[in-house]
Amino acid sequence: xxxxxxxxxxxxxxxxxxxxxxxxxxxxxxxxxxxKTNLLEGAWFALRGSSPRTRRxxxxxxxxxxFTRVELxxxxxxxxxxxxxxxxxxxxxxxxxxxxxxxxxxxxxxxRTQVFIFVPESxxxxxxxxxxxRAHLDVFAAALDAQYAAASRELxxxxxxxxxxxxxxxxxxxxxxxxxxxxxxARAAAALGQRRRxxxxxxxxxxxxxxxxxxxxxxSFTLRLVSQLAAVGYDEGALLDELRARRSGETGRGLSLFGxxxxxxxxxxxxxxxxxxxxxxxxxxxxxxAAAAAIAGPACGPVDLPRGGRDLRLFGSQGEQRAxxxxxxxxxxxxxxxxxxxxxxxxxxxxxxxxxxxxxxxLVRQLTSAGQAxxxxxxxxxxxxxxxxxxxxIELPLSGSLAAGAASPPADAAAPTPPREDAL
Length: 424
Prior knowledge:
By secondary structure, the protein is of the alpha/beta class. It has a domain of about 160 residues: P-loop containing nucleotide triphosphate hydrolases (Rossmann fold, 3-Layer(aba) Sandwich), CATH 3.40.50. The strands form 3 sheets. Strands 2-1-4-5-6-7 form a 6-stranded antiparallel sheet, with helices on one face. A 5-stranded parallel sheet has the order 8-12-13-3-14, with helices on both faces. The radius of gyration is 24 Å and the shape is globular.
């Protein structure tokens, strides 16, 4: 399915604006503060019920307005036209409808489509904390697999309960009171750890292909899951033994220090001869070989990659980090397509600005086979004329949007209907 049209009412810089998209590559061109990022954020809000940029939904409402509403239409050969509406008003909460029928939960909304987004904050997937990378993997997988979603919820519940009991033991409760919580946590941790391991293994191949396709010099890249559970073979019984062996240290801290809640995902450049995944790669990732390996070659000349690969979080350029995030999104889209049969839309905000020309051409080439992609830019010359000829070109600002820096609609603009009548 693809996004055919989008209407934004009181959303960020849009008072009441509508835009139509094509099924393939869409290029949205506009100056800074013309509303490019807001456009993609609004589409994401309609399909996911949340913003990729903020958790404070009141920030989405146009300054001075009482509510926001987004209407989005999807189309495709299989399901045909579909209409989505999501509205939010402080004090009234958020409501969503799909073809006029109210959606029961945000999880249900997320499960109906597969969409992928790059915004400037997405670089934190490489540069940010392990918690952000874990959350990204879990949200993606939960939208595809109800069992993964259940395993993630069970782990979070078990972790909170076990941490509470560890704190109670620290303050004098009997150590034996940890026994049932250890069992519950070990079961949940092993289940989620196995699913996360399998997910990264499935993504590794498509990621390596997409990342190589964005590397003009023919470099090789891979994803690696770094998990403490690899040391116990993701086995529930071995994990339970490990928890009991660590009790004194964990009760002293009042925290669970071993488990999948400490996993990390690494984006690595690797030697073409090095295995991209599997037991050997996992062993390298779990150890400290990458840090301790000697680097061959002259001090100021070409050097071999360190054993285990070059970590793009620490040593990648801004362009390489951006390409790694794009490769992950392309890999996720490919996996979701294989699972669901639907090729989800890619929302890409300002991805061209920090890519060199060679990577831009390689990215557009990949996007031509990636279904619908909506990509924003300040400069249409980041695309060659042949690429633009086969794309839908959308120029901002749209009618119904605020001028840059404006805080309210123009004086001659009709005010939106009050939220009691217009919001969902």
